[in-house]
Amino acid sequence: MRSRSAARAKTPSRRLCGLVCAASLLVLVSLTVWMPAASAATKTETRSETKARGTTFRGMGCTGVSQRTLFLPADAFGAVALSPQVEQPLISAESDEPVALVQSVTIDGTEVTWSVAGTGASCDPGLEAVEWETEDVTLRVRYKVRVRVLTRGTVITRGDRICRKYGRQIAAVPDRSDSVSAGVRDLRSLARMLRGMNRSLGDLAVPKERRSSFVNYRSALDRAQQRLEAAADAAEDYNVGGLNFQVRKFGFAIDSATRHAKRYGFRSCSGRAATS
């Protein structure tokens, strides 16, 4: 008669072997996406960026002016000051009362300067020589920059190359495991490969065109990688219920990745279609 521990190990091992089969197949068909060829090409796009910095303003009475400047990148243009706004009261660092007022915001190329003077109690007679200080204020500016990005066709071509590279690695992972420890090791290897592929895709300078689909594709791949790691943890703990749950969630993440890949322009088949 086999020992109880041997029987206990066999059930998760069988489940785990099935998991590794499903994982390797689903990931492989997700990564092996066939896309139309395109020559390497770039283009220039205008993008909006935001820069922010925390600071405080200090001054004397209501006559002295305190200034702070936010310096933008050298290639920035079209700057718009978001906060604080002109005539906005600034609260004292020592009370909840306004102690200063934004008098002006000037934009000179890549320099944005706020001028602030005392107000309220700071202007009371006899307080001309008393220093005031505001609580923390966030200077925030939106501006534009021109960036060189790949065309969508080039992103597709280079993304295809990345997927093929990692697809070959994933295909080399055994689709059967003869022990729980081997299955856990294979799951972690799959997760590591998926993470590496996702990082490589993140290095591509993606244009605005269908960018959200590309971002969602990478987010789904990230969720899939996390599910593989969680599945490996569950298998290591002989948690069959947790293992099944993570496998199911992994499948959902891969299905989502496939949908977003198609929306971006990738021609790929789903893992379930490939196994039917």
Unreliable stretches covering 5 or more consecutive residues: 1-13, 27-39, 268-276
Strand order of the largest sheet: 3-7-6-5
What pattern of helices and strands is seen along the backbone? Answer: HEEEEEEEEEHHHHH
Oligomeric form: single chain
Quickly count the domains.
Answer: 2
Structural shape: elongated
Give the helix tally: 6
Give an account of the 3D structure:
- With 276 residues, the protein is an alpha+beta fold.
- It has two domains: 4-41 and 151-275, Four Helix Bundle (Hemerythrin (Met), subunit A) (Up-down Bundle); 44-148, no CATH class.
- It is 46% helix and 25% strand.
- It contains six helices and nine strands, in the order αβββββββββααααα.
- The strands form three sheets. The chain has a four-stranded antiparallel β-sheet, with no helix packed on it.
- Helix 2 runs antiparallel to helix 3 (180-202) and helix 3 packs antiparallel against helix 4 (211-236).
- The radius of gyration is 29 Å and the shape is elongated.
Short description:
The protein has 276 residues and is α+β, with helices and mostly antiparallel strands. It contains six helices and nine strands, in the order αβββββββββααααα.
Write the layout of secondary structure elements.
Blueprint: H1 4-31, E1 42-55, E2 58-60, E3 65-71, E4 77-83, E5 89-91, E6 98-108, E7 111-118, E8 131-133, E9 137-150, H2 152-171, H3 180-202, H4 211-236, H5 240-264, H6 271-275
Antiparallel strand pairs: 1-9, 2-8, 3-7, 4-9, 5-6, 6-7
